[in-house]
Amino acid sequence: LPILEVQDLHVSIDGQEILRGVNLIVRAGEVHAIMGPNGSGKSTLANTLAGRPEYTVTSGKAIYKGLDLLKMEPEARAREGMFLAFQYPVELPGVRAWQFLKAAMDAKRVHAGEEEMGAREFDQLLRSKVEEVEIDPELVRRSVNEGFSGGEKKRNEVLQMTLLEPTLALLDETDSGLDIDALRIVSDGVNRLRRPDNAAVLVTHYQRILNYITPDQVHVLVDGRIAMSGGPELAEQLEARGYEWVREETGAVV
Ligand code: ADP
Ligand code: MG
Ligand code: MG
């Protein structure tokens, strides 16, 4: 059973069809990269899988761990081990980063029939993960993302992902705004998490981050459909030849 299977997914925003039949199978142990030109629907795919309400699924299916994903609330998706990291992280004034992290962990544990983590146990775990992610320990005492630099937001996001050990990590990266350090933090985080029983889908416009994360499969989303799929070499071809080449090869409208 794949971790995620998307079947002929059609999604509209404000009555306009953006995804026009996306098919995708992500198996345990795999990292997939979704690439494509701006406006091709990459974020729409990520946001739909995350359950954001402004995206209307008009037809198709998404099966996550055998569950009907599209019927699940965003919180239920998270409790079932989906992790969603976004281009524009929200700021939560008054909620300290560590509190947010503990609440996320506890929700998942309670759902799994376990008890909430004790303060001391959590503190120890957080300390070790803070070291692993190379994040400033002061950062977790501040309000979530409030006044964080771009790099700090990324580190905080990777810290959250590292703590939660998701079954499916979904990352929507602009990576244009990422400096080389932040890029390394994100890549290290994804690579450290790689296990035979989990998977990641990395959404990215640029090939650059794929110098640090070697995906098992690369998909090119063009005009709301996956126009081409291949191995890591496809990302290199895209880097060398641009998205226009995909149009020439497939007849898809870029
Ligand atoms: P990508 O991430 O590949 O750049 P998006 O999924 O963000 O593409 O956008 C796909 C298309 O959907 C674009 O034409 C964009 O203008 C449109 N779109 C995205 N979000 C919204 C929204 N909230 N309201 C209206 N149109 C949107
Ligand atoms: Mg169709
Ligand atoms: Mg996008």
UniProtKB/TrEMBL annotation:
Q: Which Gene3D superfamilies match?
A: P-loop containing nucleotide triphosphate hydrolases (3.40.50.300)
Asked if the Swiss-Prot or TrEMBL record annotates the protein with the keyword ATP-binding, the reply is yes
Instruction: Please report the stretch or stretches of sequence annotated as the ABC transporter domain.
Output: 4-248
Is Nucleotide-binding tagged as a keyword?
yes
GO MF annotations, alphabetized: ATP binding; ATP hydrolysis activity
- The residue ranges crossing the membrane are none
* Keywords per UniProt: ATP-binding, Nucleotide-binding
NCBIfam families in the record, alphabetically?
Answer: sufC
Can you say what this protein is called? Probable ATP-dependent transporter slr0075
Give the species: Geodia barretti (Barrett's horny sponge)
